Amino acid sequence: MRTIMVVEDEPAISRVLAAYIKKAGYECAVFTQGELAVEQLTTVQPALILLDVMLPGLDGWEVLREVRNRSTCPVIMLTAKGEIGDRLLGLNSGADDYIIKPFEPVEVIARIQAILRRPSHALITDHQKQYGSLRIDFKSRSVSLNGETLSLTPKDLALLLFLAEHPNQIFHREQLIERVWGIDYDGSDRAVDHAIKRLRQSLHPMPPEDGGIRTLRGTGYQFYANGAD
Q: What keywords appear on the UniProt entry (predicted)?
């Protein structure tokens, strides 16, 4: 079940939001301080963040910057400020939407659902791809999950890069051996199975709705990603 993180220091507002979020079928994690929300970002792994601007200590803009340094999680800003400059600041700083207080909780839920219906895959540059919380840089041959670089063996990394370059395509063991291990490889094709198992363990924190590696019995393996071409 997807988790919505609410970062709001007004108890009355956070209680109402939490009730509507749970009624809509999501988990809800409420934080009253921006610092704690940032610290718990990797642990909670929210599908979306509702972020108040006027927070004690680390304010909403600072929290947004920290979130964007670590994650591509969608963020909806909540604030009493309605000036166009504030809305533009939020959107230009990486927010996905902006809701002005006071608001109707049903509208907030509708905005959440609209954003979460968007494809999770986004092409960042010619050599980078983002699959939810997973970022892959094909030029530097690096992979990060929730902002943290994954430590993979050279072959495991090569396998993941190959599969991610061809999202939603199915490859059987022989094809993967030829494309990743090389045509001169004379070991067992079970090496593919072992590498897939290790990759799944490394990608375990990745929410299933963002993507992952799928086994199609009798057919092969696939890196599936919602919204990928």
A: DNA-binding, Phosphoprotein, Transcription, Transcription regulation, Two-component regulatory system
Domain final residue, candidates 98, 116, 134: 116
| 3-state DSSP assignment of residue 71 | coil
Residue 102 lies in a domain: yes
Phi, psi of 30 (to 5 degrees): -105, 135
The residues pairing with 30 across neighbouring beta strands, listed in sequence order, are 6
CA distance 180 to 194: 14
Q: How far apart are CA 5 and CA 35, in angstroms?
A: 13
- Determine which of 50-54, 152-156, 203-207 has the lowest per-residue pLDDT on average: 203-207
Q: What is the pTM of this model?
A: 0.56
Same domain assignment for residues 12 and 111: yes
Contact 8, 50 (CB under 8 A): yes
Cβ(4)–Cβ(28) below 8 Å: yes
Range of the domain at 155: 121-224
The amino acid at 17: L
Give the mean model confidence (pLDDT) for residues 26-53.
Answer: 93
Which strands form 48-52's sheet, in the order they lie side by side?
27-31, 3-7, 48-52, 75-79, 97-100
Structure tokens belonging to residue 10: 């007004």
Query: Cα 13–2–105 angle (5° rounding)?
Result: 25
pLDDT of residue 76: 92
DSSP structure class, residue 180: I
Cβ contact 144:128 at 8 Å:
no
Are residues 49 and 130 both part of a single domain? no
Number of domains in the chain: 2
Indicate whether 195 and 219 sit together in one domain.
yes
* Alpha carbon distance 225, 55 (integer Å): 35
